[in-house]
Amino acid sequence: MKKKMALLLACSMIMGLTACGSSSSTSTTTAAATEAATEAETEAAETEAAGTEAAAETEAETASGDMDALIEAAQAEGELTVYGSCEEEYLAAACQNFEKLYGITVKYQRLSTSEVYTKVKEEAGNPSGDVWFGGTTDPYNEAVADDLLEAYDAMNAVNLMGDQYKDPENKWYGIYSGILGFMVNNEELERLGLEAPQSWDDLIKEDYKGLIMLSNPNTAGTAKLVINTMVQMKGHDEAMEYFKALDQNVIQYTKSGSGPSKMVGPGECVIGIGFLHDGIYQILQGYDNIGLIVPSEGTSAEIGATAIFKGCSHPNAAKLWIEYALSPDCVDLAKENGSYQFLVITNATQPEEAEQFGLDLSLTIDYDFEDAKANSAQYVEDFFEALGSSADSADSGRFLTE
Q1: Which of 121, 271, 143 is nearest to 207 (CA)?
Q2: pLDDT single digits (tens) 57-77
């Protein structure tokens, strides 16, 4: 508005000067008026910029005050219980740093995502934990559908790279993203005279019978993501036929999503299906016989999340945890503690290891989170029904729960 008023005033000046002066002085007066208009516009722009800057400073001061109040309220509660579905090394480091920063006593337990979901569902409305940290979002979305998570409008959510990294109702927030793929033992493949699988369909070849490990969808969110991915890529019925065929090649379904990655290097399995950042960790531990493969027809990327349990005992400490989890104070600890996922927070430092090993989030499909939220539980039931009609039953002991 100020710019428009300045320009109108300048135009009036030009018209007035032109009408009063002779033709020989028109260019001089017009130039003077134009200069005046420019100066007026510049002044208006500077005033507007100053106002914007002042508003930003006020907003920052308000946010700082809100954060101070939250910290005080959280410290008054004094305790926090965290259920973590990321790797235990990272979970421990994150919890210990939170305790150090805020003086709040933190208890934590490492559980797979499906274990956490089952636990809070059984405890509905009276959870034994306060917050959930890490693990893929399919079980989080099941918890949202069951009204087990508390909405919270986090101040630090402004640092997220996009709205796709949070629940539409603010019931969970993303902190990292990891690519689903295969980890293979190159030495064993060479010994067996086999080529490494390059696609999802390669995995059902008879050549790989008894060589593959996948996690158990009753305990691991990773396996639920595999099921949802195949349904979205192949369609429901074809996906269930696919899992029926894949089951013939799977020697074991591990409790944890990272379980297969830990078996590949020592040769306890030849092919592990899971997140490739888990493979990076194993390689950096000395298992340089491991190869990482992104399926040629595409794959999914998890969003690792954090959330507050509805009805938790320490709501302010839980909110402070969410703010902490959406900050470099927390997520930058990941790469220092064996977790090499891509971070989805703008002010965090990305792990160089992910790019060094050729991982690229652009290789992933446009995952339908709404379909997964609505149908994951049914798809898991359908998965076990399909396997129950195959040669090996889902109750054969290959599905680990401990």
Answers
A1: 271
A2: 545 455 677 999 999 999 999
The pLDDT tens digits of the residues spanning 104-153 come to 999 999 999 989 999 999 998 899 999 999 999 999 999 999 999 999 99
Q: 3-state DSSP: the chain helix, strand, coil percent, rounded to 5?
A: 55, 15, 30
Unique residue bearing structure tokens 């076990």 = 384
* 3-class state of residue 398 by DSSP: coil
CA angle 213, 218, 220 (to 5 degrees): 60
Q: Is 9 exposed, middle or buried (0-12, 13-18, 19+ CB in 10 A)?
A: middle
Given a contact cutoff of 8 angstroms between Cβ atoms, the answer to whether 298 and 364 are in contact is: yes
H or E stretch at 179: strand 173-185
Please answer whether residues 192 and 177 qualify as being in contact, where contact means their C-beta atoms are separated by less than 8 angstroms: no
- CA gap 126, 147 in Å, rounded: 12
Answer yes or no: are the C-beta atoms of 292 and 369 closer than 8 Å.
no
Compute how many other C-beta atoms are within 10 angstroms of the C-beta atom of residue 359: 24
- Record the pTM: 0.79
How many degrees, rounded to 5, is the angle at CA 123 between CA 118 and CA 128? 100
